[in-house]
Specification:
The chain contains six helices and two strands; from the N terminus they run ααααββαα. With 156 residues, it is mainly alpha-helical. A hairpin with a 6-residue loop joins β1 and β2 (81-85). The longest helix has 35 residues, at 120-154. Pfam families: MarR_2.
C-alpha cells in the first residue's frame, strides 16, 4: 500500500509542478503516471486511473505529444491507441523550457523598446531583465544539447 501511495503522491506532485510551470495540471499528472508505471496507457486507462474525463486525457496527451514528451504507439491486433514516454522526454522538456525562456526574454526586450527617452534608466533595467531570460534560455538549450551528446556516448 505504501508503494501505491508514494506513486500517487508523485503523480499529484507532477501535476502541481506542471501547473506552476504554466502547463495544465492534468498534463503533469499524465506525465507522472507514465514515468511511474513505465508502460503505455490508453486514454481510457489514463482517465480511469487519474479520475478524469477521457476528453481531458485526450486533450492533455495531445499537448504532451506535440511537445515530444510522450508519443503515440499502436499494438498489433489492438485497435486502441497507446501513449508512452517519448524517446528522450527529459531533454525535450528542457528544450520546451528553454524556448519559453527565450520567448519571455524577447517579449521583455520588445516591451523595453516602447519606453520613452526620458525613462532611459528604466529601459536599461528592463532590457537587462530581458537579456537575463535570453541567456537562461540559451544556456538551458546548450545544456540540453550537452546532455544529448553525453547520452549518445554512454549508450554506445
Amino acid at each position: 500500500m505504501e508503494q501505491a501511495s508514494a506513486a500517487e503522491n508523485f503523480i499529484e506532485r507532477m501535476g502541481l509542478i506542471s501547473q506552476v510551470d504554466g502547463a495544465p495540471r492534468i498534463a503533469g499528472r499524465i506525465l507522472g503516471l507514465l514515468i511511474v508505471e513505465g508502460r503505455p496507457f490508453t486514454l481510457d486507462e489514463m482517465a480511469e486511473r487519474l479520475k478524469i474525463s477521457k476528453a481531458s486525457a485526450s486533450t492533455n496527451a495531445r499537448q504532451l505529444r506535440a511537445s515530444g514528451i510522450i508519443r503515440l504507439v499502436a499494438h498489433a491486433g489492438d485497435r486502441h491507441d497507446y501513449y508512452e514516454l517519448g524517446s528522450d522526454p527529459y531533454r525535450r522538456s528542457m528544450e520546451t523550457i528553454s524556448e519559453r525562456l527565450a520567448s519571455i526574454g524577447s517579449e521583455v526586450i520588445e516591451a523595453a523598446a516602447s519606453f520613452p527617452e526620458g525613462q532611459a534608466e528604466a529601459k536599461r533595467r528592463v532590457c537587462q531583465f530581458g537579456r537575463f531570460y535570453l541567456r537562461m534560455g540559451e544556456r538551458l538549450k546548450a545544456w540540453s544539447e550537452q546532455v544529448e551528446d553525453e547520452a549518445d556516448t554512454t549508450t554506445n
